[in-house]
Automatic annotation (TrEMBL):
Protein name: Ferredoxin-type protein NapF
Binding site for [4Fe-4S] cluster 1: C34, C37, C40, C44
Gene: napF
Main location: cytoplasm
Domain of life: Bacteria
Domain 4Fe-4S ferredoxin-type: 25-54, 57-86, 128-157
Region (Disordered): 1-22
Protein location: Cytoplasm
Originating organism: Marinobacter excellens HL-55
């Protein structure tokens, strides 16, 4: 009997499942080819990979983000990683409880963003508020790891709905 992802998400307290927090350059079909050998987990210099649901590798952005070094892919003996694809399907989204949005100076996310995807354009009479340039964001999670308010989430970019005019 297949498990409803909505039900599973509810039971997990809304936290993403293993298929959502997978290593870079992999797809949701990682469970079809991964042998759960842990070589990618052991090879990760940032220690962001761990043995997750069902023993499959997952990512946890707590102290670091992914530097996209590729060590996990090099260590894997199976065809799990595809370095020709985009590393991550998600991008950073700044939520409303961001300190800067509450007029409190904070720019830790910008400082952690290696691609400069997070910018703080000046605002007259208000603390500069972060903006994410989706084209520059790699989804590496460095901003998530450093945010003191847990105000950054990684989400799949919204695609435009087809126009029926």
């Amino acid at each position: 009997m297949p498990v409803s992802q909505n039900r599973r998400s509810f039971l997990r307290g809304g936290r993403p499942s293993a298929s959502e927090w997978r290593p870079p350059w992999t797809t949701a079909s990682i469970t079809d080819v991964c042998t759960r050998c842990d070589r990618c987990v052991e090879a990760c210099p940032e220690n962001i990979l761990f043995r997750g649901d069902g023993g499959f590798p997952q990512i946890r952005f707590t102290g670091e983000g992914c530097t996209l070094c590729g060590e996990c892919a090099k260590a894997c003996p199976e065809p799990v990683f595809d370095l020709t694809r985009e590393a991550f399907p998600w991008r950073a989204v700044i939520r409303d409880h961001c300190l800067a949005k509450a007029n409190i100076h904070c720019s830790t996310c910008r400082d952690a963003c290696e691609t400069s995807a997070i910018r703080f354009p000046p605002k007259l009479g208000h603390v500069a508020v972060p903006e994410v340039t989706l084209e520059d964001c790699t989804g590496c999670g460095a901003c998530v790891a450093v945010c003191p308010e847990d105000a950054i989430s990684l989400e799949a970019p919204q695609t435009e709905s087809p126009s029926y005019a």
